[in-house]
Amino acid sequence: MVAPLHPVPKLLDVSGVSKRFPGVQALEDVQLTLSRGEVLAVIGENGAGKSTLMKILAGVETPDRGEIRIDGQLVSIADTGTAKKLGIALIHQELNLADNLDVASNIFLGREPHQWGFVDRHRLYSEAHVFLEQVGLNCSPRLLLSELPLGCRQLVEIARALSAQARILIMDEPTSSLSQGETEQLYSVVNDLRNRGVGIVYISHRLREVKQLADRVVVLRDGRNAGMLVQEQIAQDAMVSLMVGRALVRQVRTSQSDGAPLLEVQDLRTTAHPQQGLSFQVRVGEIVGLAGLVGAGRTELLQVLFGIDQAVSGTVRLGGQVLHLQSPGDAIAAGLALVPEDRKLQGVILEMSVGRNATLASLHRDARCGFLNTEQEMTQASMMTQQLRVKTPSIDHLVQYLSGGNQQKVVLAKWLALKPRVLLLDEPTRGIDVGAKQEIYRLMEELASQGIGILFVSSELDEILRMSDRALVMHQGRLAGVLDREQLSEESIMQLATGTPHQMATSVLQELL
Amino acid sequence: MKKIFGILGLFLAVFVFTALRNPQFVSAYNLENLIRWISLFGIISIGVSFVIITGGIDLSIGSLIGLTGSLMAWLLTHRGWSVPATLVTVLLLSLSVGLAHGLLITRLRLQPFVVTLCGLLLYRGIARFITDDQSQGFGNSHEGLRAIAIGKIPVGSSFSIPVPFFILLLIAIVSAVVLNRTIWGRYLLALGRNETAARYSGINTDRIKIAAYMLCSLLAGVGGILFSLDLNSVQPSGLGEFYELYAIAAAVLGGCSLRGGEGTILGVIIGTAVMRVLYNAINILSIPTHLEFAIIGAVILAGVVTDELAKRYAANRRAVRERLGETPAPSSS
After folding, report:
1. B2-325 architecture in CATH?
2. What is the ipTM of this complex?
3. pLDDT in tens, A472-494
4. What residue of B is the nearest CA neighbor of A329?
5. Is B321 near chain A, with CB under 8 Å?
6. Which pTM was predicted?
């Protein structure tokens, strides 16, 4: 090994970074380098550690171990202010702009040119103009931000980063809410910034745009480096196989559905994606997985099915009968139940007891003229909690003191008391330890064998593969494909979920079959 | 239950202190008056506690008391309406005020504070306009009706229980049964803790919130009738002024959390009693009445601070216990 005589230090050099959150190793020994004028794409499945890594760079989180060097200098990014001083700017999915201020004030928020404590409005607007030009946005700096289209706001945020002399720009899914035209404009801004020597870390789920923009791709999987691709190697198949390529012990579900349709959804349109009609079925005793990337419209679909949001159009049938879903009450009366995504906000009432949570949905059935049937309530609560093996000292224990897995079982107990015909689950094992996960899987299988139809959303491919009789894959609000058990593989799901052209998906499938 | 002991302790402390300083405090006359006023304020405090349990607030009840109280007197004496027609009208008016609050808060998603603040201004103005801002009273008429506010039922030779006490008792029992023994009460407590989870459990949260506001306004209307009958001569501009704050303070003192989901009827009544006893003590101990608000404010603040500190202490002890329970004790070897 001969060191070069004048080693040019990298703009950004991350080495050996690890971060642990309670119950999960988010990052383990991650390496990453970025040069001046380079666009580095960071890709990976949901939960691969991309966001944590970016948060560490932006000073939102601090790493447990590891070194970060900028221009060869060891730095410690303790908070967001330090990150800014070091020239790191994070352009977040949810924009951090003030709607009620004008464009120039947003660009200089917190760094307004001033004199004697007053904002120097003349300099504010003239300097804002320069940065707006740099990002190719020709609007007045006096325009209220709320009057600007969403895509342009992203450019304002980039202008803000430039005005703060950012040399490292981290862009987290910048195109997720942009139209085609706005996306093109963003690409040209990215190219322009690259030519001017700014280093860009670009996070995206859209492999096509990664291919188009990136000079290099770093793939993360389960919080570790899974591989790196340089320009000529960047191809969708290569990226997908690095993203998912782990050896899996597949436990295949053995139960068979009798095939009678139970839940039939026809041309259902949600307010989130009104242009896409969704049609599918869930059969008696069938477990259907709903795969896709975050923001693909899966939660919105479940919320419409459960009457929380109203559909724009379309019909939902249960056992042949058309349902009118105006409220969760309607859905429950029809025989639907939802285990929601955000357990603590939507699933349980933390400061109520296990027993009261478990009987909340069935109270009205057991009540006599509106009076609580306390005895029946107690019996039922203890029966359900025993049946689901909820670990709790007593049914009077507050739910907030239970573990995530046991809280989830309480949510299930609430519904199972009503004997639903279709169970909807949204990320049923998120934030749950491995043991409880297996119990929830077992429970899902048991319920399916009793003839309950199950539709579950999951961002974990393992879970979709392990549990589904069939999987629906959504991409940007559209039902990108339906995969039968024989067609189910990590590759086939990822191809559909990332919006890879259809031919390629088919060819990959044929290869696999 | 523990919460009630705290407030009960405060009540007894103020009571005993005042009684020792001035025996006049425990005279039959003073106690009867005290009980009557505790009962009147207790009724409106129970009403507002239902709204507070939903996580909301009702600032309009004082003005609604002013409106219903003066409207009733005006209808009976100036318009010559019959007693049943007047009472039905006033109570229906109260219910529709509550319905309007509930609809604005649930359907239009307006904030309870804003809606009822506007109510506070609106109903006071209407009361003064209808009555031409003239004081209203019954004079010597309607003695029978006034008995429900000023009547007494003798027990023993020297002591009588004021009739409003029995009205409070009835309302309190019904309220406690509704809150603790019906699904409606359970839903109310659930939605006060976590409205989203309650909705996701199929509970029609909007309907229950509307009902809570209607109940609150109805009890304010009942309060308005009783206050008016009790005072005999009422000012449309003054009747019920600040009562919303007394009621809210009593509810909070009695264990209701403004975050919602928490509260007991018994606690609210004891909270009301503390407020009235304090008020009475200031008068009877010849403390300058200018200090009245300051003293009431200080005692309530001391009460809630003590309560919060006690809660934290309990939470800490629980956390320590659980941690000790999880990890095995270190072995001595």
Report:
1. Orthogonal Bundle (1.10)
2. 0.86
3. 999 988 999 999 888 888 888 88
4. B202
5. no
6. 0.78
